[in-house]
Amino acid sequence: MIDGWETAQGQARTPRCRLHGAPDNANLVVRMVLEELGAEYDFVHVDRVASEQKSETYRQLNPQGLIPVLEWPGQDAPVFETGAIVLMLVDHHRRLAPVQEAPERGRFLKWLFFLSNTLHADLRISFKPHRYFPAKDQSGVFAAALRKRIDSGFQLLERELVAKEGPFLLGPDPGCLDFYAAACARWAQIYGNCGRWDLGSSPGLRRVFERLECRPAVKRACEMELIAGAPFTRPVPVTLAREQKHYVDRYNQP
Ligand SMILES: N[C@@H](CCC(=O)N[C@@H](CS)C(=O)NCC(=O)O)C(=O)O
């Protein structure tokens, strides 16, 4: 038994973890998973207006200075990387993903890694192409190429859905892959990519996302992430001003 996973009576218990994030950042994926699992957790707001994620204190949690981080009782270090956090949670709870012995395990892992290291990674770059391609006169070309890659990524998911007849990515029940894909689709339609990609050529994914939008756990997660409306099929950006107002009102301090 790992430290912190036992009650005083020696019974196993679900650890209470601590999620560090900011509204509508990658912690949205983790939050949806936590809410769907009914896990207990605390949320620590990282102030992006003050670039808190780049502070020395935050870098002790994630030396990359990136959001999210999950602190997990009993682990010898905070966990960063959205995919890793999600995998830890679903494996611990043995829900929202095939267990290790299941024949769908390989299929699950390959799409989880695809979401994490290809689709999500491309999206990240598309928000800030200048960080990767400093020549300003060429960055439009670079961004357009990235959007093509992102569109191809969604098309791969769409094809998988059609081939396996869904209704969700791994079959009849929603799993963490669906939540991760939904968040990526949300971000692909707004922020730096506003108006440049939509769900028009992904009717299967659109149906998945419509179903997710009806789930109480997703509604709870979105509310806490300050996301209004239909988060995946008609997404509206969360503004930093809205985020700041929320936290000033809540704690009565800027
Ligand atoms: N590969 C990382 C990417 C995380 C990421 O891009 N986080 C963004 C917010 S969604 C961030 O922290 N951005 C701050 C920055 O780039 O300075 C993961 O999956 O967790």
TrEMBL record:
It comes from the Bacteria. One of its GO terms (molecular function) is glutathione transferase activity. This is Glutathione S-transferase. It comes from Roseibium album. Its EC number is 2.5.1.18. Keywords: Transferase. Residues 101-232 form the GST C-terminal domain. PANTHER family: GLUTATHIONE S-TRANSFERASE GSTA (PTHR44051:SF8), GLUTATHIONE S-TRANSFERASE-RELATED (PTHR44051). Residues 14-97 form the GST N-terminal domain. InterPro entries: Glutathione-S-Trfase_C-like, Glutathione-S-Trfase_C_sf, Glutathione_S-Trfase, Glutathione_S-Trfase_N, Thioredoxin-like_sf. SUPFAM superfamilies: GST C-terminal domain-like, Thioredoxin-like. The keyword Transferase applies.
